[in-house]
Protein 1
Amino acid sequence: MKKIILIIFFAVIIFTFLGLFIQNILSNFSFQKSFSNSITILQDDYITDNQRKIDILHYKLYFDLYPERKTLIATAEVIGTVIEQPLSRIDLNFYDNFQITEVTLNGTQSDYKLNDKLFSIPFVADIGDTFVVKISYEGTPQRVGLAGFVFGKRDGIPLVYTLSEPTYASSWFPCNDLPTDKVLMDIKISNDTSMISVSNGILVSSEINGSRKTYHWKTVYPISTYLIALYSSDYETFSDQYISLDGKDTMSLEYYVLPDKLEKAKVDFSEHANILNFFAKTFGEYPFIEEKYGVAEFLWSSGAMENQTITGVASSLIGGKNLFLDFYIHELAHHWWGNAIGPKSWKDIWLNEGFSSYSEALYFEHKSGSSALQSTMRDKYFMEFSGTLAEPGSYLFTNTVYDKGAWLLHMLRWEVGDSSFFEILREYYEKYKYSNASTEDFINICENVSAKNLQKFFHQWLEGEGQIELEYAISFKEENGSINTTIEIEQVQEDYEYYEFPLEIVFNFEKDESVSHLVNVKSSLTIFELTSDSKPTIEFDPNSWLLASIVEK
């Protein structure tokens, strides 16, 4: 997920330099800083012990939409199995603002309780027993989190959409709202015949019944609840295609936008096939090749959400000038990092967001070379990263999770080298595809592939707050016709005693001659000496591999 806020400030100056600096302006006002605390808090106790004793296998959902009244009539069929005992009831997450009209368990009407966003139905079962809970309900969804379920309008055109990350799928259908409980899903969406309704996976059918049209979508790959999505509007559509690396599969790229955005979207979305091809070559084949990749316009203020195979993109990001390519790269990267491989818990969210943020840098490097990699990473540099990657706490969507997460991967690449780094990404993807991984799982892959002990590296960047802060002093002494250069480098950060890292120092001499030295910093004070024939100028970390501020004393 990626969000941006544009600040109107010194409008005349910004307008003057817009053509040169727009991409940096947009990047620097990064999306995560505009999240208010009220919409990013994740409660630890939203899952009961009973929910961890069941495994949901399949959701069958039906939604009859009435945008003018902002109401829906829905049925959710939840099919699951028992994986742990003792179990005396089935618990599901579900908001309590709907009117429930019928509940059945295995085809028989059943009592139930719905209290404080928890739906419970009595069920005593053995391990391996299956169940089908069917709940019919109607009403107006409660808008929660970043959106939840929204009946919206743009320029008088109804647009219905959902945005459920992290735990708001239960605001519009009953579910086991855990990222680890991946399922198969069927969804039928009914609206006026003028409306196109879109969801995850592949389109099974579309049927007209009088003034209503019903679209049936289904997944063939497992999906987490927070990635289940619904969009319905008077969309214009266009398409492209992606051919798999082995040439055996041709997959549809499907785009849904309101009429006034059609020509602009054709410009802005044109890079998707190239991005797919690069990521497939770099990480492994697109994980949902038998379904699709799609983008649907929605009304989130200014951002995008990686709903599986059908990314939602804000209207404001469709401008026809290719100014928001980083957003499209980021959301597509999530289909490897976050969708195919989900987090084992929400504290592992950096595995989603840090990976997708670094994927932006990788694509720009692929397109424009190492200078683009460096500039992209510099755009992700902040003087302060609050909290830690290991324990993001209740606030999941911060620059620490996104940008420090990307920097961790960038520095890991510097630590292990390109060959091992890209093998790590491919091994990680192949092992955990269609399942979930923890930070510890990723560390194990890194150590196995690189054959290096990386415990110190990960401890300092996962557990440590902030970043490296270096102050240096340089002295020169002429002796016997030579120049002795002494460099003292001191770590002065307050949040972590000292980091260990390889620091590149480049000595530049006359006639464009230069010498590079790699200094392994392993203490708070490091001294490096060099003897040369002439006095050099000195660069520290010239290729921007370190999350560090480096200033002269």
Protein 2
Amino acid sequence: MGGPESSSGGTSDPADGKLVEVVRARGHENVTAEHASTLEVTSDDYLTPAGDCILAVEADRVPAEFDDAFVAACRDESATITATVAAGDHVQCVVGRGDPRLSFDSERSHVVRTSDYVDDRTVLVGADAAAAGVDRDLVAALAAGAQVTFTLAVDPGE
């Protein structure tokens, strides 16, 4: 894992106290973003039509590579975690919370959940939106194969 200012995508912003992890990926022709309770960014290089929660493939980083301080902050149930998906001029933010059960052990994918379910891929729970809630112009850009920046920012709990 990287340090607080690692070149691998982990950063901190002392001005607002947030810890940030940045992942680069790309859209895929099979992106439909129709799932009602999750959204996902995967390191896999393919996407089948059944993957209706997946927004991007070929992620350059996975949760297991995130900075220890970021992971610790996300394990606080009072932490607010914001996931931002950006492609070109299109940006979608999804806000959820941390959970002590978050492991960040996945070496494959990042999953945002509207529920409280946690597995090794879960990066936040209680999200205010899932794939089905993503702006359709952003979905069209993702389906056209746009380059994607997936940013996770945690605002530690009080």
Protein 3
Amino acid sequence: MTASAASVPAVSPALSIPDFVTHWQGHRALTRRVIEAFPDDQLFTFSLGGMRPFGAQATEIHLVDAMTVTAMRTGEWPEPDWASGPTDKAGLLAAWDEVSAELEQHGPHTDPAFFNQMHALPWGEMPGWVAAIYAVDNEIHHRAQGYVYLRALGTEPPAFYER
């Protein structure tokens, strides 16, 4: 997070709120396919280079997204229990789908003021638009690690451009 990004509010939107939600849902659908592509016994165990297993990374994505979607709906940022979360593929996919449904239902109706207001998150204070984009960026970053893991396991990952 750069100081300038955190201190400059968006003057006019580049995307409508429904367009942003659609964009984010495309990323969520792709990441869901990456989760599905993992062998059940490797999702929470396989790692490379000292990185966390993809199941742990996907759980982080889920928790950040759930917190962000809640904030978009309520303005509150309840810090998740980072040590909790699903421990198997079926549980992760079910939790994933719950957040996607909440984003689909409530995301397009987010108060536009949310995006320019400053919010206190567990990792710092920032405008809502920066926090929302961070959730997408965090997902892309970890999904890329999942692609590397899948290739190392001999599994072809989903096409990154099919969102």
